[in-house]
Amino acid sequence: MEKTIDQPKKAALYCRLSVDDGRSGESISIESQKILLKQYCKSHGITDYEVYDDDGYSGTNFERPAFERMREDIENGRIDTVIVKDQSRFGRSYIEVGMYVEEFKDKGVRFIAVDDGYDSMKSDYDMMFPMRNVINEYYAREASKKTKSAKRAKAKEGQYIGSRPPFGYKLDPKDRHHLVIDEPAAETVRRIFRLAAQGVGYNRMTKIFREEKLLTPIAYFNQHNPDYYKSDYWRKDFDWHVTSIRVILDNEVYLGKLIYGKQKNKSMKSKEKVKCPRDEWIVAENCHEPIISQELWDTVHKILAAKHRPTQSGKVQIFAGLVYCSDCGHALTYSQKKKSDGTYHGAYSCWMYKTHGKEYCASHYITYDVLYQLVFCDLQKMIGCCAKDIIGFRKFLQSKCKSSSRRQLESIVNEAERKQTRLKEIDKILSKLYEDSALGKIPESRYEQMSEKYEQEQKELSQGILQLKQEFDEAKKQTDASDRFINIVKKYTYINELDANILNELIDRIVVHHKEKDQSGRTYQQIEIYYRFIGRLKPQTDIMT
């Protein structure tokens, strides 16, 4: 666009207020700034002006809509004067403030900071100008640190610090830092998790919700907060996307948790976000009522961890991520062929064998129908045993789980004691080394070399002990594994058919052995079913062919 230089020029009254500045009171509010600048114009005979205001924008960078619009008007020769309340309202980056003021001066544009008494036409060598810029940036950095510190403290206490509640919740009218369930939205969240547990993929879900004309999370929020979003983009009521589904399924807020610090700005002046490792997150448990159970969350994420591509028949493979090779440990892959009658014949075989050949593994071939029938019968028997004699079934599971957990706990305790003993030995060695070095019995270089070696071992031992503690805590949880498993089994008094939800709720993995021949020449194949929390309930099943 060409510059327009013949038209009358005007003054730009620039106002800015960030979210943090707003807490300081009305003295620097947008309206107060406008009043002050208009009064200045009146007293100095400036009648032609336009107000540019950035409300809610940080002064640490200049990516602000009103500021960019003002710069464009300057480029087009429409403005000859920029007036601000003080330099901090213009910006808090001392380098960029100085750069823009110099740029304005080069274009013949006068810059006035009213409260600071600065006028680029009269104060060309004002030493306070750069000093004020430095002070303003220092203030911004300190304010940023204090704000982050305050937010982290609230997050650690389990207080919700977001401006907009996650879909499925609303802010508690009595405490805005506490979430309460928003039932209509929460039911959609539950449905999303239930569909995912059945093996329904992201794209299929979006199609279902669009066809049903179900409000998207943003559309639902807009319905209750019509003035929140100014753009019409957010008003596409039923335009569900894969991202919307994925965000909900990955959000641990639905377990009653609050998580802060998943990402952060690359720097104070940058809006670019970088992801933080999980060990840097603040995770607060039991902050509000959960919408879904931990068991459902675990089932869904177990399914999501496996690839669930639809087969040629359009159905999602219900055993995906559950069937493994007994020899190489890789998953068995599913293949399907269409028969002459229009039906499909499906089978599993070892991925390593299919990819690299018989030098790496055997086929471990098993048909879908055989696997389905075997697992179906085993589940029916187990559910029947639980329903018929739940007390006897619980005792059986408890004896199995406790025996396994006891051995694991003993092993962990013995290993931890060994590491603790070695730690004490190293403390004595380092103390003796220090004494020998102080008395001159060994050279300092030798002391440094040996102490570094032992300190490294000490560090590794400490990390190992911490890891063992975590394993110990996890092993102790296994003592109530029987109750956890029974609580899931009790949901199913009888099953008519298998689906991904049932399989992933009850089964951890299915191990398939390669077919072999016995002494009589008959072919048999061993199958092992490992149930969640409790492992294998009985020896492997042999399929005779």
List the defining traits of the structure above.
six-stranded mixed β-sheet, 545 residues, alpha+beta, disordered N terminus, five-stranded mixed β-sheet
What does this molecule look like?
The structure is a single chain. α4 (94-106) packs across α5 (128-156), α7 (202-211) packs across α9 (242-249) and α10 packs across α16. The chain is extended. The chain is an alpha+beta fold. Mean pLDDT is 81; it is low at 1-5 and 22-27. It contains 16 helices and 20 strands. Helices cover 46% and strands 17% of the residues. Strands 12, 16, 17, 18, 19 and 20 form a six-stranded mixed β-sheet that branches. The chain has a five-stranded mixed β-sheet with strand order 2-1-3-4-5, sandwiched between helices. It has a three-stranded antiparallel β-sheet with strand order 13-14-15.
The number of distinct β-strands equals 20
User: Which parts are unreliable, with pLDDT below 50 for 5 consecutive residues or more?
Assistant: 1-5, 22-27
Structural class: alpha+beta
Helix content: 40-55%
Task: Report Rg.
Answer: 34 Å
Report the major sheet: 6 strands, mixed
Bin the strand percentage: 15-25%
Mean pLDDT level: 81
Q: How far apart are the termini?
A: 82 Å
Q: Given the C-alpha coordinates, what overall shape results?
A: extended
Assembly annotation: single chain
How are the SSEs ordered, and which strands pair?
Elements: E1 10-17, H1 30-43, E2 49-55, H2 65-75, E3 79-84, H3 87-90, H4 94-106, E4 110-113, E5 118-119, H5 128-156, E6 169-172, E7 175-181, H6 183-197, H7 202-211, H8 217-224, H9 242-249, E8 258-260, E9 263-265, E10 273-275, E11 282-284, H10 294-305, E12 323-325, E13 332-338, E14 344-350, H11 351-356, E15 366-367, H12 368-388, H13 390-438, H14 444-477, H15 481-489, H16 500-506, E16 507-512, E17 516-517, E18 523-531, E19 535-536, E20 541-544
Parallel strand pairs: 1-2, 1-3, 3-4, 12-16
Antiparallel strand pairs: 4-5, 6-7, 8-11, 9-10, 13-14, 14-15, 16-18, 17-18, 18-19, 18-20
Helix pairs in contact: 4-5, 6-10, 7-9, 10-16, 12-13, 13-14, 13-15
